[in-house]
Design brief:
Elements: H1 10-17, H2 31-54, H3 60-76, H4 80-83, H5 87-100, H6 103-120, H7 124-142, H8 147-164, H9 168-182, H10 191-194, H11 198-212, H12 228-235, H13 241-257, H14 282-301, H15 311-330, E1 336-340, E2 343-347, H16 350-363, H17 367-373, H18 375-381, H19 393-399, H20 405-426
Antiparallel strand pairs: 1-2
Domain Interferon-related developmental regulator N-terminal: 25-329
Family: Belongs to the IFRD family.
Organism: Acorus gramineus (Dwarf sweet flag)
């Protein structure tokens, strides 16, 4: 880059970590506050453009710092206005970082793609994001050994598919990618899982479970998951507690689907109805499977802590498997209440609990902000934040009209982006077709 070109650094990252009003703030409609809001939008958009520009730099550390700034910005704000006509540019640069960058750069880029998907929300754009990114994310799982990169890639696959997949088949294909990664064709000896560090195995099991939450029992593939119960049950014996917890959640979710026959080779075909309408052989197989899982779940729900055991982790395991036992044995669903933005949200199924926990872990410090302002999350959890109001006619005219000051600012920023893109194509920012 030329001298004097803006290179956002630590101060920009800190700026986006602040907890002030978001870009879309409409708390007042006075002329003065409108000017302030527009100035804030212009300033932040310029900062984001500077970070985006730095993704074209040759120095890897510059790109890594830019990705850190963008990740921080998208965590702490719901930047719908910024990505509305720029998501393809962002996505292409993120993909380039995954393809050509270091493990650290690829890790940050994968997280950035997931945050971009959450910002875009469901629709044609998120579908395009998924289609474009999945092949490169899949390849990233196959190369290198960095555990944190692979975990980030698995999270990105799960988030982008959860939002962008338009049918069961598309979701199923990505679940199969994740499954084959953690459980390559190896019978039931979990040899594939033994090669993965526990954090990566947890990330894979959790990503697979997260995507399974979108299915009802009848839409689940009858062919892909016939070894899943056996595999997950064996993971309950792993030394790492976080692996046991992830496997326990997945097993509970499978039971909640009501179609165990689709997840166990032993049960396949056992639910064929006879002439008298009764299931042939199914009941005995199910009871045997339930008994095996219940015995192990009871042990884990009452496990004693040894010397050096982290108390919180142990309590998390006990609580989880106590709920698993109650659900499998008595049909009692878990019920969890979480206070968000002054409102209490109650979750009463394993699918809801897994979705909430996954998105909360992924968003981290930005969870409350996104739950307050992200329309996608409102739809997923049927949640309306306290104090959320419809815009008045005057507010809509000020903030949503094509002629409003705010939208004029956005147009100016988008025009600037287009000119920069042309410069990159014809000048020293150029990226060859082969590089892309």
């Amino acid at each position: 880059m030329g001298k004097g070109r803006h290179k956002p650094g630590r101060e920009v990252t800190a700026f986006f970590d602040s907890d002030d009003d978001s870009l879309s703030s409409t708390s007042t409609v006075s002329e003065q506050s409108t000017v302030i809001t527009v100035d804030r939008v212009r300033s932040r958009f310029d900062d984001l453009d500077g970070l985006l520009d730095n993704l074209y730099e040759k120095r890897s550390s510059t790109r890594e710092n830019a990705l850190s700034g963008l990740v921080s910005a998208f965590e702490s704000n719901v930047l719908v206005g910024y990505v509305s006509n720029k998501y393809i540019t962002l996505l292409n640069q993120y993909i380039n970082s995954i393809k050509r960058g270091s493990a650290l750069e690829a890790k940050k880029a994968a997280r950035a793609i997931g945050l971009l998907a959450l910002t875009i929300g469901a629709g044609v754009e998120s579908q395009e994001l998924m289609v474009e990114s999945v092949p490169h994310l899949t390849q990233a799982l196959k190369v290198g050994s960095d555990a944190s990169k692979k975990s980030a890639v698995l999270e990105c696959l799960a988030i982008s598919t959860f939002i962008g997949a338009t049918d069961a088949e598309a979701t199923d294909k990505v679940m199969k990618i994740i499954w084959d990664f953690m459980h390559p064709k190896s019978g039931l000896n979990v040899s594939g899982a033994n090669k993965l560090p526990p954090p990566v195995l947890v990330a894979a099991v959790s990503a697979w479970s997260f995507l399974l939450t979108v299915f009802d029992g009848w839409r689940i593939s009858s062919n892909n998951w016939q070894e899943s119960i056996s595999f997950l049950t064996l993971l309950l014996d792993k030394d790492d507690r976080s692996v046991r917890i992830a496997a326990g959640e997945a097993i509970a979710l499978i039971f909640e689907t009501g179609r165990l026959d689709k997840f166990s080779k032993e049960l396949t075909g056992s639910f064929v109805e006879g002439n008298n309408g009764n299931n042939i052989g199914g009941f005995g197989h199910v009871e045997s499977l339930k008994g095996k899982i219940l015995n192990r779940a009871r042990d884990l729900s009452a496990e004693a802590g040894g010397k050096g055991t982290a108390k919180k982790d142990l309590n998390d395991q006990r609580d989880l498997f106590h709920d698993v036992v109650d659900f499998i044995e008595h049909g009692v669903s878990p019920e969890t209440s979480i206070k968000i933005c002054g409102e209490v949200l109650t979750l009463s199924t394993w699918a809801q609990v897994i979705q909430m926990n996954y998105l909360k872990r992924f968003l981290g410090v930005g969870f409350n902000k996104h739950m307050q302002e992200n329309e996608l999350l409102h739809d997923v959890f049927d949640f309306t934040p306290k104090g959320k109001q419809q815009l008045s006619v005057k507010e809509k005219r000020i903030f949503r009209s094509p002629n409003s000051a705010l939208n004029k600012t956005r147009t100016q920023v988008l025009n600037k982006s287009r000119m920069l893109a042309q410069d990159r194509q014809h000048g020293h920012f150029a990226v060859t077709h082969e590089d892309a």
